[in-house]
Amino acid sequence: MEFIKLDMSATVPFLSAGAVEKLEEKALAARMALEDGTCKGNDFIGWLHLPTSISAEFIAEINETAKVLRENCDTIVVAGIGGSYLGARAVIEALGNSFAWLANKGENPNILFAGNNISEDYLAEMTTYLKGQKFGVINISKSGTTTETALAFRLLKKQCEEQRGKDMARKVIVAITDAKRGAARTTADKEGYKSFVIPDNVGGRFSVLTPVGLLPIACAGFDIAELVRGAQDMEKVTAHDVPFAENIAAQYAAVRNALYQSGKKIEILANYQPKLHSMNEWWKQLYGESEGKGGKGIFPAAVDLTTDLHSMGQWIQDGERTIFETVISVENAEHELLFPHDEENLDGLNFLEGKRVDEVNKMAELGTRLAHIDGGVPNIRIIMPRLNAYYVGQLIYFFEVGCGISGQLIDVNPFDQPGVEDYKRNMFALLEKPGYEEETKAIKARLNG
Ligand SMILES: O=P(O)(O)OC[C@H]1O[C@](O)(CO)[C@@H](O)[C@@H]1O
């Protein structure tokens, strides 16, 4: 069994002696507080033992539901926002063929995402596209009341029923929501949709290994048992009784906090595989919503490399020295493509002839790492043997535990998100939602000076 590895050696020159060691005890205590449920936000730590609690029967039930959707749909729209879509998107893109949506030969349905914005153009273009499609919908919302998702679902439900008939719509609409509360639950029960429950004690951004992520991933044709197996194995090697020297989640939490305390306020997650773009987005929510509160928190930023070396590279190399970089480094490519010979050699690249493209990518990665270190950017490497379901499962769980520990080191409750309510309050007041009369009056007065 191989594991993803953590290389923190290129943070050492940037930290005072013993800075990480000083946090070792605290990181292990934070890991223990997750275990014994004494941490802040302890009513939301159901994700901690989630992987090892997933049974073969549960995976079979998800695969069975996915089969119904796959057999009856050429397109599946996943309606959800934040933790109710980012994890599924991250895994589907990481494991998929970058051009599957263009070359689709009908083996797998196309997976589209909605309910993550309120753009009229986006929704109009999507509903127009869906007119020709045998589509189904997975409606995902823990609260069951999120405006973006509810709005998209109302449109999609109506279109699906009109296009495919009520009976078929009932077959190809699935709800993933709270067991009892919220409009998504009420609708699912009333219409008789197949539904899955998001456990009360698992917050949205930690929910990718619940049906929230597993069902869309299975619908896309990927092996969720392997994904879960990877997470289960990572659960074991990041457990509360694993010593610091072997516990990469505790190490990651400690080193990023040591860097934060030394003035590095921004963490840039970088990848050298465009397929990991949405993994960056998932990670940004995980760490941003968990740690950014009370005037504190490492700002999670992300880049795709080498792409963004030609846009953000200058800043990273030479801008304000308040950043550190965490690179997801994939050791082995899934395909083999050799650099071809060119008789004329007009581009002068014959010196690369016969080399694998991945070797060139690796040299770009190493060269960039050294340049950034020379430029004053501490570097953490997360090394994945390959980009497959098993290691993606490991990566997800590694980041989740790292986050649960790290938030405690920053001394915030990593499992709430009170700040996201403020925009909603203003939006509802501006839209004159019933029940918001006072807020509407106040916001209008404010806008009218
Ligand atoms: O699943 P829900 O309840 O629709 O919430 C979606 C997202 O919105 C938030 O609650 C923030 O408003 C996130 O924490 C969550 O992932």
TrEMBL record:
Localisation per UniProt entry: Cytoplasm
Keywords in alphabetical order: Cytoplasm, Gluconeogenesis, Glycolysis, Isomerase
Enzyme Commission no: 5.3.1.9
Group of enzyme by EC: isomerase
Enzymatic reactions: alpha-D-glucose 6-phosphate = beta-D-fructose 6-phosphate
Active-site residues (renumbered): E289, K424
Keyword ATP-binding carried by entry: no
A cellular-component GO term for this protein: cytosol
Name of a matching Pfam family: PGI
Any single biological process term in GO: gluconeogenesis
Origin superkingdom: Bacteria
Pathway linked to the protein: Carbohydrate biosynthesis; gluconeogenesis; Carbohydrate degradation; glycolysis; D-glyceraldehyde 3-phosphate and glycerone phosphate from D-glucose: step 2/4
CDD domains referenced in this protein's UniProt entry, alphabetically: SIS_PGI_1, SIS_PGI_2
GO molecular function: carbohydrate derivative binding; glucose-6-phosphate isomerase activity; monosaccharide binding
InterPro entries xref list: G6P_Isomerase (IPR001672), Phosphoglucose_isomerase_CS (IPR018189), SIS_dom_sf (IPR046348), SIS_PGI_1 (IPR035476), SIS_PGI_2 (IPR035482)
Recorded family membership: Belongs to the GPI family.
Protein purpose: Catalyzes the reversible isomerization of glucose-6-phosphate to fructose-6-phosphate.
Protein known as: Glucose-6-phosphate isomerase
Gene of this entry: pgi
